[in-house]
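Reader question, answered in our methods column.
A reader sent in the components of a multi-part assembly and asked whether the whole thing could be modeled at once rather than chain by chain. We filled in our standard form and ran it. Here is what they sent:
COMPLEX SIZE: three components
ENTRIES:
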Amino acid sequence: MTTSTGACSVYGQVAPGFEAVRDELARIAADEPGFSAQFGAYAGGRLVVDLWCGPDIGPDSIQGVFSATKGAAGICTALLVERGALDLDAPVSRYWPEFAQGGKQAVTVRTALSHQAGLAGVEPQLTLDQLIDHDYLAGRLAAQIPHWHPGSAHGYHAVTIGTIVDELVRRIDGRTIARFFHEDIAEPRGIDFFIATPDAEEHRVRDVLPARPAAPSPGAEPMVNPVDSLAGMAFNAAAQDPFDPLPANVHAVRAAGTASIGGTGSARGLARLYASCIDEIDGRARLLCEQTVASVSQLQTAGPDLVLGIPTRFAVVFQKPDDRLRYGSHQAFGHDGAGGVIGAADPWHGLAYGYVPRRMVAPAGADPRGMRLAGTLRRCLAASPA
Amino acid sequence: MTTSTGACSVYGQVAPGFEAVRDELARIAADEPGFSAQFGAYAGGRLVVDLWCGPDIGPDSIQGVFSATKGAAGICTALLVERGALDLDAPVSRYWPEFAQGGKQAVTVRTALSHQAGLAGVEPQLTLDQLIDHDYLAGRLAAQIPHWHPGSAHGYHAVTIGTIVDELVRRIDGRTIARFFHEDIAEPRGIDFFIATPDAEEHRVRDVLPARPAAPSPGAEPMVNPVDSLAGMAFNAAAQDPFDPLPANVHAVRAAGTASIGGTGSARGLARLYASCIDEIDGRARLLCEQTVASVSQLQTAGPDLVLGIPTRFAVVFQKPDDRLRYGSHQAFGHDGAGGVIGAADPWHGLAYGYVPRRMVAPAGADPRGMRLAGTLRRCLAASPA
Amino acid sequence: MTTSTGACSVYGQVAPGFEAVRDELARIAADEPGFSAQFGAYAGGRLVVDLWCGPDIGPDSIQGVFSATKGAAGICTALLVERGALDLDAPVSRYWPEFAQGGKQAVTVRTALSHQAGLAGVEPQLTLDQLIDHDYLAGRLAAQIPHWHPGSAHGYHAVTIGTIVDELVRRIDGRTIARFFHEDIAEPRGIDFFIATPDAEEHRVRDVLPARPAAPSPGAEPMVNPVDSLAGMAFNAAAQDPFDPLPANVHAVRAAGTASIGGTGSARGLARLYASCIDEIDGRARLLCEQTVASVSQLQTAGPDLVLGIPTRFAVVFQKPDDRLRYGSHQAFGHDGAGGVIGAADPWHGLAYGYVPRRMVAPAGADPRGMRLAGTLRRCLAASPA
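And here is the structure of the entire assembly that came back:
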């Protein structure tokens, strides 16, 4: 790999042919004083982009990635499928008998893991302490009558999908999802990502910075979720301000192993995590065979999201690209986080990448700058001699 | 309850803290000369609003409520579920064997009662006499091949859903839905609502007044359902003018017990009916336990309505709130009628209410003024000391 | 039938009362120099319109109809249903065991034949030679993991739905769909339409003319399907230019019997084909009974199309009318082709018609002029004494 330390404040390396990604990041950084982010990418199992820029951030900085944690949870799910331990078409209650309560006996793993189970939240709503108490929340979900008929629609299970995946892992494997992920995926493959962040890694954690207050814009409405709406429930608006404190900045959240929102990592870690799913890396066989990748990245549901009120598309746990989430080809799968983080793999292009901005974006979710970088990455690959 | 006879032409009572509802109704009445309506509400099982205004209307006036009758039919359905007599996931044909014709053997009660059965109407279409002839229409529906594949979509079964519910009640209980409703729900609980209006109550019936002709508005199109469209079929446009005569003003319709459109009642009656579902009233236990309420108010389908051409959301028989039907929280359930009538319960807020305007609104359906009153009601409750 | 040779360049015949159709075609022809098309229609099983206009076209000219071929494939499917040989609710794998691969063992015929199977294309993509090689493509589809979960959504299987239908016909009947269609439908009924065009008929084939380049229009975007999108895959954009050469003009395509896009015919042939489904013609009993017509024309799915990116509606193989495809009543069923061809039947009105323009339209699909002619046809029928 050619070492090409970036101009401006961009540091790190890009492989020959991928210089445009560094240039794009430099342009982004020039546009916003104090901009700070990491971007990493693998092509064909080879690290081709490994960049960072901005104050107080290095290649080994990690930070809370909010819902990008769900991508790691999705990969744990995929690994159980790969091992033949989890059948997507089995009822959840085969693995988790208590889940049969509330008319949910026939709800399949596939339905539950694609935001279609109607369990987007619970009422009365959750304090932050309850939210990170796995057993408490799993018990509430098991008992609940779904808010919509499972399979009839989807709505973002912002917090609860992590609990469902975690409970499935615990019932099938015996370990928590955080430990399963660390021991079977991250640690042996040198992936800098944690579902539960060990205290020994806490010195590398950088606080997520809150989004800058938006300039007053006539006609723009603040995103307000009425407490009595499905969105209010999914984000626990009645019980707490979902962004104060930012969960990513709360030590107890990072330590708890909350698979929906509690993970930390670097862009390099996210890129390597997703690349491991689709390619051999450094001599280690790919984590998932092609058939498993096709199965878990298969689109499960598309259309208006009952919680978010906008169109969304989900695979098994993963988000699928759409007009808003321009992650790549129709084969791509990944997950963003409220702060703007993106992690994704794109088998069509043989690419995987991670993007970690330090400051949150508004509206919350996949930072358009991360998607611009990914677009540049695809153009570099298309232009490069095969 | 404080007796506070309204200013302007608003009469009746509001409990302390709910004065703003009376003021809102007075404002509405002041805006439209001759405006005439009833509004009633329960909070926590207590009558907190009981108002009426306008010429020739009193607290005991009743009138045809069009499709708000479906709300009463939904409550009958719920009571059968509560009693364990009706399984929403059973095929309709378990109770009504003839329904298995036309490829419908596997269509569940849940599908049929959420406007998803593809039986939005029949062709050749129905005269008014056929429409209120229960056995005739039930036979037509049993024989029919659905117009869309059951479960693949929903479309408002404007007339036929009442026939399906009624037939289920008859097969399970032995009584007609009108008698079942009267004997098991309305009469013992003092609820002023009728699916079939007895002649002895006819002296209280006020005619529904037709909507005022809309002022010519550039760009506005009259609602026309081509006779060869699904909507034309659902509203029997080829066989009769669905609004001439207004079915609510036809004695034979009111007497027939047609559960889709034939009921009569007062706002007080509708409020008490819905409140009875979620709260103890005057020492009588609630009609439905929390689990039954959660089951029947569960969202079954959301999205574009194949008949109405706009997005709609349905629970089991009931409408669910959306951007158009702002009934309350995501837990609310209710039904409007073409004339503008609304009846709804909202477990999240512990509220139930009824609104009965005398004059029809255009476009047909939930009168925005009724939804404004309900919004004021929720604000009063939120502001009141618990 | 009154022989009324058209003014302008319109030739042929219309029955009394249908003169307005000829006038409409004359207006259309007058608007576009060199316009060339055929339009034919049956009412109640009687040929009432049989017109053609423009250079180098006659009543017996035939040309490639692109996806309008799918309509003929739909009618073959319907005939198997009529004969009790095909159960729409059976899994495809009952007839075609290899189809069970890739998690498709439970995918029903109904799902597969309404563009819901998630098999909109294959990757790596197809050369034109592979596309018309039935056994090759059938094998690829049998092995494939669907791109979306079957039944969760629909997306236009532009090429592959023909392969699925053809394989079902082969497994059930033993003959290819092209031979089945010719021997059991077209030949005995004098229907001028071919799924595989015999060399003996090639002298009647007229080349399809490419669409005129659109005038530059500010804001208009060319339809470009990124090669890595579902649409790119469905139209094989990565392997070939889907419109160069025009498949309809390639002898090998016309000869291959490719049921998705390879058929040829005349407007008169299309009209007679669809009329045969719903009416007795020239003393021959209708091909399909009312129940079969209701079953195969039943709407199976409606909403955003994952491939086309616009709303579409499908019955079993057939398209259903919507705001874009104004084919007639809600009972109508038919199919268009990229060149603008339309074939449709409308049981509500007792009509069937075919429209074959010589020059392709842009955007591709049902030519608005064909739909205007069909609208005029319905008005003529409504105005005529029954």
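What stands out: Confidence is low (pLDDT under 50) at residues 1-7 of chain A. The radius of gyration of chain A is 20 Å.
Send us your own complexes using the same form.
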